User: Which sequence fits this backbone?
């Protein structure tokens, strides 16, 4: 006689199915997503207010803040925007991509709350240290310039919290597999989130390796951290922290294409292969931040920032084609088949989720991607290193690419996750254009000033009163003035996002959330469909996208060789 | 059915590539290889490649060597601080001290001639930014970086510090004359 034990079901949780989107939210995962996303928006608000100080000080005609305040504000702006806003939001994305898309419960919610608490305590600790005035060391905090111990401790606590959250995400994947809430492979968006989480583990490990000894140095327990070792390991952290963002925002691009159009990846194999190339090669490209440093061998630089980095570049070029391509295929199937671009003209440009994501894709590729490859080329890097071209590049990747994508997806989540109607819908429609296009212009003129040699992180380009002052050409002052104008407009665009988001959460009409039930429903099995091969032309399912890709390539090639020509005119170095 | 659902085809890795994707992958890969070879090509045929010659050093050791060159080759001083202007012979070692918040000494070089420029920071990271040429090199404390430089234009050049180094970072400007 055999006894059959009853299957242990998870206790004390419930599930609701959103009537508008069909997504199933587990109660505890939902709450954690909400608090992480909300905290992210708070960090964005703080970082955005600080951006006002930065922009109005670097604008030569205004030159608002005194030097000590400017460097403090710049340090906090960088950390709040590049670390806290983005990573809190990404933790919410990880929980969404696992618990919600796989329709399962969140693993270890108590650990997830601990992760959130550590991240919040760490963020506040770090910011308090910065605003106390003794830690104006920039986000990069290069030794031997030291910050107060609380600066490093705050970052370490934040990192430990983020690491725990990554393992909750991995644990949730295990739960979904074990409880069979889906069949076959995970969705592509979840696969992209796995990529981001794996890169995050590497990033946080690198951060720990360098920040813990530096923290110990700041309290006097470690005598010295070598400045060159610091830079090498810190950039494994700093560079890779931005590659978490790339993987996460590209996963969301696929999600937005699916949400807005029902778009399927053109080829799962190609898209997943590209994410795999990210895991293997994005981190090695951190070498491109060290190209102007002493002590790095030529072979190390060439291999890491050429051979290896270009596999990551290849992956980005693949995603840059496959996402618009998937949209085009889906649109052509709906009947928008005339000419190369009817599918694009008749896309839902009034939907801020789609508009934001598309503007992010174009800006990330043309502005951020191409400039990143210039910076990652050994010799060309000498034209760019520590100039304001560098922030021009990373504002294109992080602000246009990542932040605009996160903003766009928020407009989808307000009704789906927060169960609120979006307030000020006209403002929400306008916001991706105002923010996106002003940031395009901001990045262009910032990179223009950097091409003329203007320094980054520099309070006074006039070198007021100095006997050996260098006089920048008038064009450089014009560029920096335009950076100021574009920056103010972009901050207004960011402000609209915060207004719409916070107002919707506080005052938006409550929407039906779907009845709570104790048992979740797994992902339904779907039948394969015939691959679409009949709506394109010349054997191409997405000819319009291919044309856009060729425009991108031509721009890339021309700009690349223009930079080499410029380099060839300069002093000989060997 | 879409990127937010599991692939409908269980064996998604066997799905044939769309022609658009396949074509683009080939083009992108070829372009990446062109860029790879361009970096190598410039090492062979180009004139602007950053030296990798680097030594460990200390502030005392480097300062002593810099002072010796200043003592030997100073031709005049400039500014109220009487910064020495050093005109070293072709091919010789030239020392440039980066220290809060100045570059020292001022250099006077000749067009078309090559010098070995020794760079280090005595305190924090600094950035050697030669303007208006816009050549940028990181200057790291504890490391002496030896860069061979060959000016190809006459004129007055400025060295702007472009790595953040504290409250008066914006006053750290030096000069090089090329005659």
Assistant:
């Amino acid at each position: 006689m055999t006894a059959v034990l009853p299957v242990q079901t998870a206790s004390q949780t419930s599930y609701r199915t959103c009537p508008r989107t069909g997504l199933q939210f587990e109660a505890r995962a939902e709450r954690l997503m909400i608090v992480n996303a909300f905290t992210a928006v708070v960090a964005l608000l703080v970082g955005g207010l600080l951006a006002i100080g930065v922009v109005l000080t670097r604008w030569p005609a205004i030159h608002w803040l005194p030097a000590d305040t400017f460097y403090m504000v710049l340090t906090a702006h960088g950390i709040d925007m590049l670390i806290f806003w983005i990573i809190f939001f990404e933790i919410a994305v990880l929980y969404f991509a696992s618990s919600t898309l796989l329709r399962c419960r969140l693993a270890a919610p108590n650990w997830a709350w601990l992760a959130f608490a550590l991240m919040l305590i760490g963020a506040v600790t770090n910011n308090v240290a910065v605003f106390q005035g003794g830690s104006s060391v920039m986000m990069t905090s290069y030794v031997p310039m030291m910050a107060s111990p609380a600066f490093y401790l705050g970052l370490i606590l934040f990192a430990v919290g983020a690491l725990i959250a990554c393992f909750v995400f991995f644990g949730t994947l295990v739960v979904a597999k074990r409880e069979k809430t889906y069949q076959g492979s995970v969705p592509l968006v979840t696969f992209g989130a796995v990529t981001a989480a794996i890169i995050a583990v590497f990033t946080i490990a690198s951060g720990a390796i360098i920040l813990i000894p530096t923290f110990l140095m700041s309290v006097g327990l470690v005598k010295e951290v070598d400045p060159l070792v610091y830079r090498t390991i810190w950039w494994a952290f700093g560079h890779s922290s931005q590659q978490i963002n790339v993987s996460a925002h590209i996963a969301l691009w696929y999600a937005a294409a699916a949400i807005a159009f029902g778009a399927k990846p053109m080829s799962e194999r190609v898209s997943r292969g590209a994410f795999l190339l990210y895991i293997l090669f994005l981190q090695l490209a951190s070498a491109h931040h060290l190209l102007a440093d002493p002590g790095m061998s030529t072979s190390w630089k060439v291999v890491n920032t050429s051979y290896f980095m270009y596999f990551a570049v290849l992956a980005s070029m693949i995603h840059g084609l496959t996402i618009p391509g998937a949209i085009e295929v889906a649109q052509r199937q709906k009947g928008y088949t005339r000419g190369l671009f009817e599918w694009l003209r008749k896309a839902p440009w009034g939907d801020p989720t789609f508009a934001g994501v598309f503007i992010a894709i174009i800006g990330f590729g043309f502005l951020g991607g191409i400039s990143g490859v210039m910076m990652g080329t050994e010799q060309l890097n000498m034209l760019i290193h520590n100039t304001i071209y560098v922030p021009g590049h990373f504002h294109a990747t992080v602000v246009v690419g990542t932040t605009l994508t996160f903003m766009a997806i928020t407009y989808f989540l307000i009704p789906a996750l927060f169960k609120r109607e979006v307030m000020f819908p006209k403002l929400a429609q306008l916001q991706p254009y105002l923010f996106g296009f002003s940031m395009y212009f901001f990045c262009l003129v910032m990179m223009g000033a950097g091409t003329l040699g203007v320094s980054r992180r520099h309070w006074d380009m006039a070198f007021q009163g100095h006997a050996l002052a260098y006089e920048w050409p008038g064009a450089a002052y014009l560029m920096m003035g335009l950076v100021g104008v574009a920056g103010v407009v972009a901050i207004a665009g960011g402000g609209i996002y915060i207004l719409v988001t916070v107002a919707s959460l506080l005052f938006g009409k409550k929407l039906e959330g779907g009845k709570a039930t104790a048992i979740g429903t797994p992902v339904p099995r779907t039948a394969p469909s015939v691959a679409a091969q009949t709506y394109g032309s010349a054997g191409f399912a997405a000819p319009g996208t291919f044309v856009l890709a060729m425009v991108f390539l031509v721009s890339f090639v021309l700009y690349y060789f223009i930079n080499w020509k410029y380099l060839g005119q300069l002093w000989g170095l060997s | 059915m879409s990127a937010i659902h599991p692939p409908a085809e269980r064996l998604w890795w066997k799905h044939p590539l769309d022609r658009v994707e396949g074509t683009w992958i080939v083009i992108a890969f070829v372009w990446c290889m062109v860029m790879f070879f361009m970096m190598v090509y410039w090492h062979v045929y180009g004139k602007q490649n950053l030296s990798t010659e680097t030594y460990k050093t200390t502030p005392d050791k480097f300062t002593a060597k810099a002072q010796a060159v200043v003592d030997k080759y100073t031709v005049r001083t400039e500014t109220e601080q009487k910064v020495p202007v050093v005109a070293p012979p072709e091919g010789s070692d030239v020392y440039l001290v980066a220290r809060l918040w100045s570059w020292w000494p001022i250099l006077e070089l000749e067009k078309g001639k090559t010098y070995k420029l020794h760079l280090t920071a005595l305190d924090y990271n600094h950035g050697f930014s030669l303007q208006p040429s816009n050549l940028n090199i990181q200057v790291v404390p504890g490391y002496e970086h030896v860069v061979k430089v060959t000016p190809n234009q006459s004129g007055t050049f400025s060295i702007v510090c472009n790595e953040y180094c504290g409250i008066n970072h914006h006053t750290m400007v030096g000069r090089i004359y090329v005659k």
